């Protein structure tokens, strides 16, 4: 009987510490804090300064023009599979994912982060993030953003 009384007293004491006891409202909810704005879809290391003059031959040799139109690249960029890069600034505004340069770099390294309306997802290879060096990406970004 003593053991039962001691156990009952311990149970009441432990129950008094519980968050589930009415009146003891210290519950934690899975509700996140309010987020204002848009969360970044990727985190990237800042690129070195790009060279637009070095970006043009890289754009051509990488085959970008086979899928994209981009007037500054001339006849080497007449593709129709991917978005028309002459409208890159408009896509960046629609995506709302940072500056034009940030959007362009992300589009090269993580093409699924934003797909322009009317174009199929998953067509652009995501391998550029590993096949191109950071300087090459910076050069492409400079060419695409300065030449347009």
Characterize this entry briefly.
The protein has 6 helices and no strands. With 148 residues, the chain is an all-alpha fold.
The number of helical runs is 6
User: Which structural class fits the helix and strand makeup?
Assistant: mainly alpha
Strand content: under 5%
Name the CATH superfamily classification of the domain at 52-117 and 124-146.
Cytochrome c-like domain
* Sheet with most strands: none
Overall description:
This protein has 148 residues and is mainly alpha-helical. The chain has a domain of 89 residues: Cytochrome Bc1 Complex, Chain D, domain 2 (Orthogonal Bundle). The chain has six helices and no strands. α2 crosses α6. The protein is globular. The termini are far apart.
Outline the fold blueprint.
Blueprint lengths: L1 H16 L34 H10 L26 H8 L4 H10 L18 H4 L2 H13 L2
Which descriptors would you attach to this protein?
Cytochrome Bc1 Complex, Chain D, domain 2; mainly alpha; single chain
């Amino acid at each position: 009987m003593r053991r039962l009384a001691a156990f009952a007293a311990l149970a009441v004491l432990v129950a008094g510490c519980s968050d589930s006891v009415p009146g003891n409202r210290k519950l934690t909810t899975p509700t996140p804090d309010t987020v204002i704005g848009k969360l970044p879809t990727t985190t990237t290391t800042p690129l070195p300064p790009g060279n637009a003059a070095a970006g043009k031959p890289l754009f051509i040799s990488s085959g970008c023009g086979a899928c994209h139109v981009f007037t500054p690249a001339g006849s080497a960029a007449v593709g129709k599979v991917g978005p028309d890069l002459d409208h890159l600034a408009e896509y960046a505004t629609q995506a709302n994912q940072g500056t034009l340069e940030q959007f362009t770099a992300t589009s090269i390294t993580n093409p699924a982060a934003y797909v322009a309306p009317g174009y199929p997802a998953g067509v652009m290879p995501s391998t550029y993030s590993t096949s191109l060096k950071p300087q090459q990406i910076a050069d492409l970004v400079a060419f695409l953003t300065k030449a347009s």
